[in-house]
Specification:
The protein has 176 residues and is mostly helical. It folds into two domains: 54 residues, no CATH class; 120 residues, no CATH class. The protein is built from eight helices and no strands. Helix 6 packs antiparallel against helix 7 and helix 7 runs antiparallel to helix 8.
Amino acid sequence: MAHLDGRRWKGDPELIERLRSAVADRSDSFLIELLLEIDAIVRHDGSPCATLAAMPRGTRCWLFHVVLPLAAGTATYLDRRAIPSSTGFGAWVRGNSADGLWCFALTMALALVWRGGASRPRRFWLAASLPLALGYELAQSVEWAPGLYDTKDLLTTFVFWTAACVLAGRVAKEER
């Protein structure tokens, strides 16, 4: 794991200092450590593009389609104060994008687990991810699950699920 004191991570000293202050202010150090580890992997030989190209395709898919959306959704959820709460796009990112990103990551994880398998079980699990995500939001509306119900979360979840299904179809076609 990369360290925030910069011993193993040869990153920008200014960025390291910003990350240190973020850890001191909040308890989301696990997310920061995860992002630093991803960055250390990408910067392994000094060339991010060469490192990404050298990664197995499956690893790149998991990194970009599951880990990064999970990290972005978690960062958005944990640090809502850093995102301007104006109307429009900023308000949407602050209030609703985390649910959509988590649904996207769940759907893509299921697609990647079932890739190369029979199409019927794969389609079942892709379809099952939508009721799981929407069901959690609906459970919040009747106070069966913790959280605050918002109809925009339902729409955001559906949009991100649709995007994940389209992307999963493209990934499957590329593998054939």
